[in-house]
Design brief:
With 554 residues, the chain is of the alpha+beta class. It is built from 15 helices and 19 strands. The longest helix has 19 residues, at 108-126. The protein is elongated and about 90 Å long. The relative contact order is 0.10.
């Protein structure tokens, strides 16, 4: 039976309002008159003796749970001939279904941050004795608190895992698009069932599209559209990870939640732990997300001989951030980005100071290591050797205090004939805070060009390194001799990122390029507001890079 507003359970819990309702019962917001706190009361209307016995067992176990990404279970009880009840912390914030409906696609770094937090919670549940299988993971059951913490809610159909007891329709519910095929009956549900549902949830966050129903996929051979087809900012590597999580055969998925989490973290080459603060402004389109989106404008001015670069950070080019307050996402006003990038101002920047590039500056270096980088420059030195020599000198002259630096390479681990592997061959070689130039020099010398040039995918991967705040400044510096040889358009990818609010400048140094490569590489700087230069010898490249360091050290 439904509970009425004002109704009191056990002389303790006063019902305030209905939060949600489903086939098995409802969830209410209530007031705990003993503890003087707001709580959530989950009602389960399955009243069979077997169901009540199972509820008592599960209630005792859930009450002992303690994890930062799970609500605390305060109480559990059965009212004869009425229902079973779990009393939990009331979680402030919005659920991901609401966020998707109001704001659209969630940028990849923010989505991964939340999903990895839920991975932690599920790994904790699965490690209990016996394991607890949630079995109802979907956007509506993940809430985002005001501090950006993701909380997995609704244990209404959670079950203790018994390998000898098959799932039956009477013991669970399903959510089309998120439930795996074994949950529809006739099969075992285990920890891999939660892997499927969480993978489907991440798919929906990145596409604003519910994956095809698992039974329809199985019976009618319905295919899941690749993520990059629906969201060009998603990398092929992340697409493959999610595809593995939502495999129909249970044995083909990640076998544990920890495996799934590790694979997700490897797509960024580092664990994601940042909390995302949120804003309570009325729903608007995405512009800037606190993990990936606060932009800067870096102006590179050509000085003496065309090879000295001046770099300055124009802080007033950053949009004004709203004050993070309560719920949802960090969203800025919907002023559209310019369709064409205006020429950088030629007004000289203020005199540099010792704090011009403090540690909140992040310089990401992306090195083309495809097989064409073995070709010689005009001085006879291979392009990759010129890059190694010039960067070694450049990094020794970085400013004090030095910026954070990440070093990425692409096309260096797989032969060009191995197209499938080579076109996702992107690696974060080193991520350094506060300089450590010796490690950079050692690492750069180990790169050996071998494969193709997945430039578009490499740029997408590199942006995951940027930890954006209002004070953070970031720049991407590419040293390359060609565009993308894997069939993607880096310029279109950059434009798509800008359309969803991901702004950062790209600066390219073309190495002995031809007309086709020049056009492809110059386009990157025109779209992003960066600058393009060329070098045809090792000495020219050294001049370009050392000019940058000299200006930053003034």
């Amino acid at each position: 039976m439904s509970l009425d507003t004002g109704q009191i359970l056990l002389d303790r819990y006063q019902i305030n309002q209905t939060i949600g309702r489903g086939g098995f019962g409802a969830v209410y917001q209530a007031y705990d008159m003993r503890l003087n706190i707001t709580v959530a009361v989950k009602e389960n209307l399955q009243l069979s003796p077997q169901s009540q016995k199972q509820f008592e067992r599960e209630g005792h176990l859930l009450a002992r749970l303690s994890h930062p990404n799970l609500p605390r279970v305060i109480d559990h009880f059965v009212i004869p001939n009425q229902g079973q009840y779990l009393v939990m912390d009331f979680i402030e914030g919005q659920d991901l279904r609401t966020i998707l409906n109001q704001h659209g696609i969630v940028p990849t770094p923010q989505a991964l941050t939340w999903i990895i937090q839920i991975c932690n919670a599920l790994s904790y549940l699965h490690s209990r004795t016996p394991p607890i299988i949630h079995r109802d993971i979907k956007p509506a059951n993940i809430k985002i608190q005001p501090d950006g913490q993701a909380i997995l809610v609704d244990f209404g159909i959670a079950k203790l895992y018994d390998p000898d007891n098959k799932t039956t329709m009477g013991a669970k519910g399903v959510t089309h698009g998120f439930s795996p095929p074994e949950q529809y009956g006739g099969g075992h549900t285990d920890v891999r069932s939660d892997v499927y549902a969480l993978g489907a949830t991440l798919y929906s966050l990145l596409t604003r599209t519910m994956p095809p129903d698992s039974v329809q996929r199985m019976l009618n051979h319905v295919t899941v559209p690749p993520l990059p087809q629906l969201n060009p900012t998603v990398t092929l590597e992340l697409d493959q990870v999610i595809a593995t999580a939502i495999e129909l055969p249970i044995e083909n998925r990640f076998q544990t939640m920890a495996q799934f989490q590790t694979a997700l973290e490897q797509t960024t080459r580092r664990p994601l732990t940042a909390k995302i603060l949120v804003n309570t402004a009325p729903p608007q389109n995405w512009r800037t997300i606190s993990y990936l989106g606060v932009a800067i404008l870096i102006t590179l001015l050509l000085l003496g001989g065309g090879f000295i670069i001046a770099i300055s950070f124009i802080t007033n080019s950053n949009p004004t951030l709203p004050t993070p307050t309560e719920i949802a996402l960090l969203i800025l006003p919907t002023t559209p980005p310019p369709t064409s990038t205006p020429s950088p101002t030629m007004t000289p920047p203020p005199p540099p100071t010792a704090t011009m590039l403090p540690s909140h500056v992040h310089l990401a270096y992306l090195i083309d290591s495809s097989n064409s980088m073995l070709e010689p420059l005009s001085d006879g030195q291979a392009k990759i050797s010129a890059v190694q020599t010039a960067l070694a000198e450049h990094w020794l002259n970085l400013p004090q205090p030095p910026p954070n630096v990440s070093l990425w390479a692409y096309g260096h681990r797989f032969d060009a004939l191995n197209q499938n592997q080579s076109c996702v061959d992107i690696e974060l070689l080193l991520l350094l805070a506060q300089g450590q130039s010796e490690s950079l020099i050692t690492t750069i010398k180990q790169i050996t060009p071998r494969g193709r040039s997945p430039l578009a995918e490499a740029i997408k991967a590199t942006t995951g390194d940027f930890n954006f705040t209002a004070e953070q400044h970031n720049a991407l510096i590419i040293l390359a001799d060609s565009g993308d040889s894997c069939g993607f358009d880096p310029c279109q990818m950059l434009q798509t990122q800008r359309e969803v609010g991901l702004f950062y400048p790209v600066y390219v140094i073309g190495l002995g390029v031809d007309a086709e490569a020049r056009q492809a590489l110059r386009c990157l700087t025109e779209v992003s507001g960066g600058r393009y230069q060329e070098a045809y010898s090792t000495s020219e490249l050294i001049q370009v890079l050392n000019g940058l360091a000299q200006v930053m050290n003034k």
